């Protein structure tokens, strides 16, 4: 006996938003995901994590962060293959948690990347000012915003290609960093301050956990933010050729590459530098990242300039991905009639032009950095972006958990799914719990408390606005 059609709607229809063009391949998806993830979290945040937790603590933190990201991506993969949509998380939360939560998650993910745009443009502008101190930070912010805006409004295909090449620059840099670092560790090339190969003695010189166990958990927000961007695969599923084939391949490829890149980077930095020196220096100069120190000590000429260029490229790549993701959230809200139809208007090349323009205003906080302390703005925007990302990840795990339970209840089996997240229900439950703990850790950092409470207020405002404007009336 078959179930009523209404029970099957959530399962047996692929909800793809037709007007957006399916222009992305597996290589575009993988690089989009890597591009979103390899940015400030790796080039800048990694040193801070090592300085706070010690070498072994940092390695554990990044492995744990990678496993959390992998669990979340497995849940997302199952949902995205079955229902490839542009604006995926909000739609999944809408169907499998509740309409108000779906509305909130869509807006929260928009806020995640909009806040990130501010961090990326601010950081890139500060780096350019180190080269050109006479040029204002706000001017560089406008220039970078214009570049990213043009790449996004051109076409989905051109955006994907630009992101592929921007991401390739930093991927090659990270690979070179790990290879040269390992050569120095094993004594094949000289390293300043060492007569013989340092090997891995630095990892435990000050003990296994010189700062104790707690900092490992306290830094998990930074670590999880470093892996954020992997979920862009889900956003792009609605604009991907053959999602059933390309999305699972991209998820596996992206996660394992990120884990190798991140953990490999941490091992190299920790083995070659005393952990106390891994963080940014007293002047908080962004170019004093551990990448610069290691390349300089190996003897790479103009190491600081090279890494500054790479980090600027990385920041623009992350901003490029962020504007793409945030604009698709607005597009999705408009398609659900929760924003004016204007926001789902497409340009001739098939991009949501109004949504992109409005999202660009998220870069405005970067313009304030010349008048106010740029590091303070940077840290608060980073905290907001990290916390909102963790909440979105929690919603992905809960959506997949509820989806699978309904799937079984409707009489379906795993064999009918084109992609199955393994070890149900362990994977979504553990993913949710770890993300929850990570989010709460933000409250332990006094500097991030304003951002933490700001995010909670934003979430409450989303639920209230949904209840006031969009909640279906009982007589309907």
TrEMBL record:
Q: Where is the Amino acid permease/ SLC12A domain?
A: 28-449
> Which residues, by range, are in coiled-coil regions?
none
Q: In Gene Ontology terms, what is a biological process of this protein? A: transmembrane transport
**Per its UniProt record, what InterPro entries does this chain match?**
AA-permease/SLC12A_dom, Amino_acid_permease_CS
Question: Which topology term describes how it sits in the membrane?
Answer: Multi-pass membrane protein
| rRNA processing among keywords | no
Key words of the record: Membrane, Transmembrane, Transmembrane helix, Transport
Q: Where in the cell is it found?
A: Membrane
Tell me where the transmembrane regions lie: 29-47, 59-80, 92-111, 131-153, 165-189, 209-233, 254-275, 306-326, 346-368, 380-398, 419-443, 449-470
This protein's GO CC annotations: membrane
Name the chain's protein. Answer: Amino acid permease
Gene source species: Acinetobacter silvestris
């Amino acid at each position: 006996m078959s179930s009523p059609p209404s029970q099957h709607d959530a399962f047996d229809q692929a909800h793809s938003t037709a007007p957006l063009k399916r222009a992305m391949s597996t290589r575009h998806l993988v690089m989009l995901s890597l591009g979103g993830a390899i940015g400030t979290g790796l080039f800048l945040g990694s040193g801070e994590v090592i300085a706070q937790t010690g070498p072994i603590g940092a390695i554990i933190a990044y492995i744990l962060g990678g496993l959390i990201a992998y669990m979340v991506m497995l849940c997302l993969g199952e949902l995205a293959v079955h229902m490839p949509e542009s604006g995926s998380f909000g739609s999944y939360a809408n169907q499998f948690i509740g309409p108000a939560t779906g509305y909130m998650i869509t807006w929260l993910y928009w806020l995640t990347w909009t806040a990130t745009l501010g961090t990326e443009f601010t950081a890139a502008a500060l780096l350019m000012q180190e080269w050109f101190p006479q040029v204002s930070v706000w001017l560089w912010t406008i220039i970078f915003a214009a570049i990213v805006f043009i790449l996004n409004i051109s076409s989905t295909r051109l955006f994907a290609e630009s992101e592929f090449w921007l991401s390739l620059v930093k991927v090659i840099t990270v690979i070179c960093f790990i290879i040269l670092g390992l050569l120095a560790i094993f004594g094949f090339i000289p390293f300043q301050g060492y007569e013989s190969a340092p090997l891995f003695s630095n990892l435990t010189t000050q003990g296994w956990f010189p700062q104790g166990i707690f900092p490992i958990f306290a830094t998990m927000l930074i670590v999880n933010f470093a892996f954020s961007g992997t979920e862009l695969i889900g956003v792009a599923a609605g604009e991907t050729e053959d999602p059933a084939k390309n999305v699972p391949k991209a998820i596996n490829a992206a996660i394992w590459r990120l884990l190798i890149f991140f953990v490999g980077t941490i091992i190299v930095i920790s083995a070659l530098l005393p952990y106390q020196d891994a963080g940014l220096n007293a002047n908080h100069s962004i170019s004093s990242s551990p990448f610069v120190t290691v390349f300089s000590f190996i003897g790479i000429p103009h190491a600081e300039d090279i890494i500054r260029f790479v980090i600027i490229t990385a920041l623009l790549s992350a901003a490029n991905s962020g504007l793409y993701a945030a604009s698709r959230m607005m597009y999705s809200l408009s398609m659900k009639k929760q924003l004016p139809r204007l926001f789902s208007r497409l340009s001739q090349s098939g991009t949501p032009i109004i949504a992109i323009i409005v999202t660009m205003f998220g870069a405005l906080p970067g313009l304030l950095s010349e008048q106010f302390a740029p590091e303070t703005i940077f840290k608060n925007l980073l905290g907001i972006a990290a916390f909102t990302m963790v909440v979105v990840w929690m919603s992905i795990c809960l959506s997949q958990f509820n989806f699978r339970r309904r799937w079984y209840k409707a009489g379906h089996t795993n064999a009918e799914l084109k992609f199955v997240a393994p070890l149900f229900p362990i994977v979504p439950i553990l993913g949710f719990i770890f993300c929850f703990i990570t989010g709460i850790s933000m409250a332990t950092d006094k500097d991030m408390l304003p951002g933490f409470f700001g995010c909670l207020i934003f979430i409450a405002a989303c639920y209230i606005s949904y209840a006031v404007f969009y909640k279906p009336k009982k007589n309907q």
